[in-house]
């Protein structure tokens, strides 16, 4: 059973056209993360939520925004996608209670193509 | 700043071989370390989590060790199979930031 769900799996957008990627979880976890992963590179953390508290990485471009309307859902908004934003976007969750023993779970990812 | 290095970057072995993937990290202040598997174009699947107080964890043919003081972890795969072909990533969880810091991975090919 899917625990971290990402929609759509593939997204094609035009240069400069806003796009929203969706993530939902059935785990009732407190923490949700968004990562960007480019080909053959390590996943790069963009931001995360601990419950409703938003934590942005210092080097995340302003072009990237996020919303978490409730525990289950988290969205990644790219306001004006550029060609360099084409990547796999990964959502992940963690319970956020017992730091040393918690597994972080990832969704299947959304591959974004910018034309 | 935590930096994670994985060696080798790529590895090709014949089916049945035992193999070791290496991970090193620069800051030993971690809560745990996770090993993940990533198939091409897919998300990450957690394989093993080792708490900072543990030395190793086992799951089936996989065994992961952790030497926190020296900043090293290894993933041992016994009797490799073609289905093990994937990229393997290690990620320590920083205790200062509560973030996973990823290495670039080892791309494994197991030849039939």
Detail the topology: elements first, then pairings.
The complex is a heterodimer of chains A (115) and B (112).
Chain A: E1 4-7, E2 10-13, E3 19-25, E4 31-37, E5 44-50, E6 53-56, E7 64-67, E8 73-78, E9 87-94, E10 105-106, E11 110-114
Parallel strand pairs in A: 2-11
Antiparallel strand pairs in A: 1-3, 3-8, 4-5, 4-9, 5-6, 7-8, 9-10, 9-11
Chain B: E1 4-7, E2 10-14, E3 19-25, E4 30-38, E5 44-51, E6 56-59, E7 62-67, E8 72-77, E9 86-94, E10 106-111
Parallel strand pairs in B: 2-10
Antiparallel strand pairs in B: 1-3, 3-8, 4-5, 4-9, 6-7, 7-8, 9-10
Describe this structure in words.
The complex is a heterodimer of chains A (115) and B (112). Chain A is mostly beta strands and 115 residues long. Helix content of chain A is 0%, strand content 50%. Chain A has no helices and eleven strands. Chain A is globular. The mean pLDDT of chain A is 93. Chain B is an all-beta fold. In chain B, the strands form two sheets. A five-stranded antiparallel sheet of chain B has the order 1-3-8-7-6, with no helix packed on it. In chain B, strands 2-10-9-4-5 form a five-stranded mixed sheet, with no helix packed on it. Classes of the chains: A mainly beta (115), B mainly beta (112). At the A-B interface, strand 9 and strand 10 of A face strand 4, strand 5 and strand 9 of B.
What is the mean pLDDT of chain B?
A: 94
Please identify the oligomeric state. heterodimer
What can be said about the biggest beta sheet of chain A? 7 strands, mixed
Q: Could you tell me the number of beta strands of chain A? A: 11
Task: Count the E strands of chain B.
Answer: 10
The overall pLDDT of chain A, averaged over residues, is: 93
Could you say which overall geometry of chain A the principal axes of the C-alpha atoms support? globular
Beta-strand percent range of chain A = over 45%
Total count of helical runs of at least 4 residues of chain B: 0
Q: Which range does the strand content of chain B fall in?
A: over 45%
Give the SSE order of chain A as H and E letters: EEEEEEEEEEE
């Amino acid at each position: 059973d899917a625990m971290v769900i990402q929609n759509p799996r593939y997204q094609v957008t035009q240069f400069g056209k806003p796009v929203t990627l969706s993530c939902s979880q059935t785990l009732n976890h407190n923490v949700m993360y968004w990562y960007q992963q480019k080909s053959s590179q390590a996943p790069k953390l963009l931001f995360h939520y601990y419950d409703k508290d938003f934590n942005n990485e210092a080097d995340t471009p302003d072009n990237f925004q996020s919303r978490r309307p409730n525990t289950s859902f988290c969205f990644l908004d790219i306001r004006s996608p550029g060609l360099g934003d084409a990547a796999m976007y990964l959502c992940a969750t963690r319970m956020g209670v017992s730091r040393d023993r918690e597994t972080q779970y990832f969704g299947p990812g959304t591959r974004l193509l910018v034309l | 700043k935590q930096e994670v290095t994985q060696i080798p970057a790529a590895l090709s072995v014949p089916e049945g071989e035992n193999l070791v993937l290496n991970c090193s990290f620069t800051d030993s202040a971690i809560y745990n370390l996770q090993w993940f598997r990533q198939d091409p174009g897919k998300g990450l699947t957690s394989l093993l989590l080792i708490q900072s107080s543990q030395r190793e964890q086992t799951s089936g043919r996989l065994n992961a060790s952790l030497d926190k003081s020296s900043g090293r972890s290894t993933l041992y795969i016994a009797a490799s199979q073609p289905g093990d072909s994937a990229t393997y990533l290690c990620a320590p969880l920083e205790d200062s930031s509560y973030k996973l810091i990823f290495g670039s991975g080892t791309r494994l090919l197991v030849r039939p």
